[in-house]
Design a protein that fits this description.
heterodimer, A: about 220 residues, Sufe protein. Chain: A, GMP Synthetase, Chain A, domain 3, 3-stranded antiparallel β-sheet, B: about 400 residues, 7-stranded mixed β-sheet, 4-stranded antiparallel β-sheet, 15 helices, globular
């Protein structure tokens, strides 16, 4: 028999470690979307004093390399401090798995992104992000790279759906080239909110999102200080 | 849980099939005894014998379509046949008009040929299909114009199995003086198609989906159909396709076509029905892709929601089963199935779709074994899927 993956990948695929949902996690994140074909959820329990990952679990909707990477990443991260866990790279995970087909990089990198996002979520929700960094076009664009358009399965930035990112009176305005009545407009909007709003979690309590205007092909997201 | 006797269970017969020993035996003499090039009637004996074998094979295959031998040209397979049909007609009658119509769920040779012609200045209309994969004859009627020269609509979809009712489509074309091509690769000898009754002008056929050899196919070309030769060289195949004739292949193709019986097709359909009925009732959150009854008798295609197809196929592979999926992760292109998207499915439906296709060497036990294994695999994958947990929470 000849399989497309290494023995270690197949082992983690068949018997994924640290798999399942976690009740009341200290940090969590979901990366990817059903549309892009891969989705990873990562849940963390963190020691509030030592900032060590006490427990970690993952869930995967994805192909074999996605499942295997999720599994190995939880093994690599468990017991590490948040700082050390953040430094885990896709290359390290791929090496620990005995190699991954290059074409599968995008399926497997999601687990690393999931881990980092879960750590960030812990930091943002536990007041660890005290530094007030001004939001720039780049910060917004980076986050929008993680929003998929279900119609194509590709992200908004790569598919040139972001018409404009601008700032007006302390509001961030994102214009997306999709009609308001587009099949996936609502889904895309809620994903954009989910990715952008944690940016301003410590700013004030009245972060709001405006409804899109009816009519022309644009949606608006606003944030008020 | 495993498959019976641990043997390999092949359920990807739509991709290709195991050669039948009888086909191999029929081909053998044309490798070792009658290996000469097919010569004219004034050539030497071995060449004349080769020529006779070629023409006999041609007539036998054509007879299964209610056609005559002169209406069949051998090619290297379905891809070449469909390329020749589309590009050959476009080159022959492109001056009369520049409009071509295909359905959105055609197989790649037709779709890619249409796109290539589009680049050369032809206008291509892709007809939408309904959620079960059917072309509405009214849509075709509306799309046909005085500029239309060719319509290509498959007899059956190889992925979701939908059997197109091509007779009304072919008639619309005939009434409007437009040529009609159909890709019959997956229906030939499994679903009746009689060229004496249905006004099809060109049809793509292939041997390897019928337990025949790979590397040989045919294009039915109705008499007087304008077609320009694409492969230049000698005068073979009624001067429509140059190149040394593949005589063992042609003999193998004819033998494979002769070996298919209605009883066998009915047996495949019973296995398929058993698989389809059991999966759809015993496994929750499943969707049948294509029509329940108007489909290829040997094909089932089911989406298992909340899970990704490559994970299912790999688990099955580890247990000895071969199947295929419409998931992007499985394909070389990393693109989700254009067929599932074409019938209005979303990416999740394409990613979780699995095709099971039966052939001569399957047994009813294979159907039961794959049902039980898939049920267990899908259950395991759903247990770790965030998609299910978020949808069902």
């Amino acid at each position: 028999m000849k399989f497309p993956y290494s023995e270690t990948v197949l082992d983690h695929f068949k018997n994924p470690r640290n798999v399942g949902k976690m009740e009341n996690p200290d940090g969590k994140a979901v990366e990817g979307s059903p549309a892009c074909g891969d989705m990873v959820a990562v849940y963390l329990k963190v020691d509030d004093n030592t900032r060590e990952i006490k427990d970690i679990k993952f869930e995967s909707y994805g192909c074999a390399s996605n499942i295997a990477t999720g599994s190995i990443v939880t093994e690599l991260a468990k017991g590490k401090t948040l700082e050390d866990a953040k430094a885990i790279t896709w290359k390290q995970a791929a090496n620990a798995l005995g190699g991954l087909p290059p074409v599968k990089a995008h399926c497997s990198v999601l687990a690393i992104e999931g881990l980092r996002a879960a750590i960030l979520n812990y930091e943002e929700t536990h007041g660890l992000v005290t530094e007030k960094v001004p939001t720039t076009e780049k910060t917004i664009q980076d986050r929008l790279r993680h929003v998929m358009n279900p119609a194509t399965g590709l992200d908004l930035v790569r598919t040139h759906k972001i018409k404009k990112i601008g700032f007006q009176d302390g509001n961030a305005v994102v214009t997306i080239a999709l009609p308001v009545d587009h099949l996936f407009a609502a889904a895309i909007r809620s994903e954009v909110e989910e990715k952008l709003l944690p940016l301003w979690m410590n700013c004030s309590k009245n972060t709001t999102v405006s409804s899109p205007r009816p009519g022309p092909a644009r949606n608006f997201w606003k944030k008020r200080h | 849980m495993d498959n019976p006797a641990g043997r390999s269970i092949y359920l990807d017969n739509a991709s290709s099939t195991r050669l039948d020993e009888a086909v191999f035996e029929a081909m053998t003499p044309y490798f070792f005894e009658t290996y000469a090039v097919a010569t004219s009637e004034f050539g030497y004996s071995m060449g004349i014998e080769a020529k006779e074998a070629l023409e006999a094979a041609r007539s036998r295959i054509a007879s299964h379509l209610g056609a005559s031998g002169e209406e069949l040209i051998f090619t290297s397979g379905a891809t070449e046949s469909s390329n020749l049909a589309l590009k050959g007609v476009a080159a022959a009658v492109g001056k009369k008009g520049n409009h071509i119509i295909v359905s959105a769920i055609e197989d790649f040779p037709v779709l890619a040929s249409a796109r290539a012609l589009e680049k050369d200045g032809f206008r291509v209309t892709m007809l939408r299909v309904d959620p079960e994969g059917f072309v509405d004859p009214e849509d075709l009627q509306k799309a046909v114009s005085s500029e239309t020269i060719l319509v290509s609509i498959q007899h059956a979809n190889p992925e979701i199995g939908t059997l197109q009712d091509i007779a009304p489509l072919a008639r619309i074309c005939k009434e409007n003086g437009v040529l009609f091509h159909t890709d019959a690769t997956h229906t030939f000898r499994r679903v009746p198609l009689n060229m004496a009754k249905t006004p099809v002008d060109l049809a793509t056929l292939s041997a390897h989906t019928l337990h025949g050899p790979k590397g040989i196919g045919a294009l039915f070309v109705r008499k007087n159909t304008p077609l320009k030769k694409m492969m230049d060289g000698g005068f073979q195949e009624f001067d429509l396709r140059a190149g040394l004739e593949n005589i063992p292949g042609a003999v193998g193709f004819a033998t494979a076509a002769d070996l298919v019986t209605d009883q066998e097709t009915e047996a495949l359909q019973r296995m398929r029905d058993r698989l389809m009925d059991r999966m759809l009732t015993e496994i929750p959150h499943t969707t049948l892709n294509g029509h329940r009854f108007r489909r290829l008798p040997q094909n089932a295609n089911i989406t298992f929601h909340f899970v990704e197809g490559e994970s299912i196929t790999l688990h099955l592979d580890l247990r000895g089963f071969s199947v295929s999926t419409g998931s992007a992760c499985f394909s070389k292109s990393l693109e989700a199935s254009h067929v599932i998207l074409g019938i209005g499915g979303d990416h999740e439906r394409a990613h979780g779709s699995i095709r099971f296709s039966f052939g001569r060497y399957n047994t009813p036990e294979d159907a039961d074994a794959v049902v039980e294994n898939v049920a267990e695999i899908v259950d395991r994958l759903r247990a770790i899927s965030p998609l299910r947990n978020s949808r069902e929470a």
